[in-house]
Amino acid sequence: MNVNSGVQFPVQAIVFDWAGTLVDFGSLAPVASFHSVFEDEGIDITFDEARRPMGLAKREHIACLTHEPRIRDAWIEAKGTPPTEADIDRMYASFIPRQIDAIRKHAEPIPGVLELFRALRDRGTRIGSCTGYNRPMLQELLASARDHGLVVDCAVCSDDVRSGRPAPDMALSALERLGITDTARCAKVDDTTPGILEGLAAGMWTVGLMISGNEVSLSHRDWSALPTSEQERMKDAAAEVHRRAGAHFVIDSAADLLPVLDTIATRLGEGQQP
After folding, report:
1. Which among 17, 24, 169, 256 is annotated as catalytic?
2. Taking the CB of the first residue and of the last residue of the chain, which one, N or C, has fewer CB atoms within 10 A?
3. CATH number of 67's domain
4. How many domains does the chain have?
5. Maximum C-alpha span of the chain
6. Radius of gyration over alpha carbons of the chain, in Å?
7. In angstroms, rounded to a whole number, what is the distance separating the alpha carbons of residues 98 and 137?
């Protein structure tokens, strides 16, 4: 349905996450930065551990890692005392410039996203976004993504709201900026559990992404090199995580979103709500 037809498509807006959803296949940019700030403290964390709180605001992410029993025990063994708020602040301050640099290197759109945006604009569907990055990180991301031809209608970050994910504040702020009040006619697309919970709390349809984001956590090249059997195993595991979180739909990547929006449009026409 084309916006020029004068008929509005039933799904008025999509609020996308960024890393692992629109750009940075595998959500690789944040992980090395989290790992390195702990390494500087003399604490070795695994990349799997670094990923577990993904989707949260980044200071909260670091704080969450310090509360992990194994990491907390390692910290106490290395330093003699538990991690403090001052320690978290210091690591977060160190994290910010590393993350900004990583964002520049991982801003390439996920395959199919640019084509998706063109189709959404043809339908008259607004394109919002939100992220656990802070405002300086988001500004770098917006500029780097724009260099690749990727432009959203609005972008909200954790600095802009009182509560980050899994609270609905960022998603609702994005819709407010887009001038949309009917959350049931909107969808949240994300690759993390906190992002799915955010969309649910906002009263939106939620779509979890299996292969492009945090659950599989591989670059597009590494993913493509896997045997089909291993791809299917990893997809099934990622889908289960999103379904347990309550996602209404689960797809490979944002490139596969249009059929989901058609299904949502049908359900809305039948009087269904998220």
Report:
1. 17
2. N
3. 1.10.150.240
4. 2
5. 68
6. 19
7. 10
